[in-house]
């Protein structure tokens, strides 16, 4: 079915065109100038807003990458540390080992990679959520105290006996392991979801 042209719309355009022609060159120039001025103001407002929102998005993406990298490094280091601590002899004679006292002390200290990952996470802790930040800093403090205590206990071990050393460090080792487990759990939300 053929549509009839909309007469009122056509009449409006004719009215606008007639008005425009009646303005004369100076009136038309004034209107064009005012429309262009409004457009320029709108563009002047929009461009900085767009640039600022782009900068915010870019910073947010950089922050997300920093957090994911620090979380992944720390989680890998803590996973390894948790396994080592789980397998550490308790000094009760159930686990047969051939450690010297120096080897036992080295075994119970945190790996250099763990210390480095923890140090980096503490430096970047302001990128994490508040509870995770608190947990990272708390673990850093406890790990430093633990390492000093391991050194002290190794020096005071009865007759250089590794079993006596393992017994003396076992309790504190378990407390540090609990802190490690708590942080490992909190870091999961910063890592890509594992596919099942």
Structure characteristics:
196 residues, mainly alpha
Question: Brief description of this entry?
Answer:
This protein has 196 residues and is mostly helical. The protein contains 5 helices and no strands. It starts with 6 loop residues before the first helix and ends in a 9-residue tail after the last helix.
Summarize the helices and strands and which ones pair or pack.
Layout: H1 7-87, H2 101-108, H3 112-123, H4 130-156, H5 162-187
Helix pairs in contact: 1-3, 1-5, 2-4, 2-5, 3-4, 4-5
Low-confidence stretches: none
- The assembly state of the depicted protein chains is single chain
Question: Quick check: average pLDDT?
Answer: 84
- What is the share of helical residues? over 70%
Q: In whole angstroms, how far apart are the ends?
A: 59 Å
Strand content: under 5%
Q: Count of helices? A: 5
> What is the general shape?
rod-shaped
Which structural class best describes the helix and strand composition?
A: mainly alpha
The number of E-state strands comes to: 0
Largest sheet: none
Order of helices and strands: HHHHH
Rg value: 35 Å
């Amino acid at each position: 079915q053929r549509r009839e042209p909309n007469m009122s719309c056509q009449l409006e355009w004719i009215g606008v065109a007639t008005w425009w022609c009646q303005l004369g060159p100076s009136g038309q120039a004034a209107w064009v100038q005012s429309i262009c001025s409004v457009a320029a103001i709108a563009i002047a407002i929009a461009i900085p807003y767009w640039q600022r929102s782009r900068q915010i998005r870019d910073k947010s993406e950089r922050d997300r990458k920093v957090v994911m990298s620090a979380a992944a490094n720390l989680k890998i280091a803590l996973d390894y540390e948790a396994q080592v601590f789980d397998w550490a002899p308790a000094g009760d004679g159930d686990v047969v080992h051939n450690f010297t006292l120096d080897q036992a002390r080295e075994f119970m200290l945190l790996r250099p990679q763990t210390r480095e990952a923890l140090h980096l996470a503490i430096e970047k802790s302001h990128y994490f959520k508040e509870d995770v930040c608190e947990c990272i800093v708390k673990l850093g403090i406890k790990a430093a105290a633990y390492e000093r205590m391991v050194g002290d206990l190794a020096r005071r071990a009865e007759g250089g006996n590794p079993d006596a050393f393992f017994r003396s460090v076992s309790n504190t080792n378990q407390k540090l392991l609990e802190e490690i487990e708590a942080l490992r759990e909190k870091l999961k939300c910063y890592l890509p979801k594992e596919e099942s």
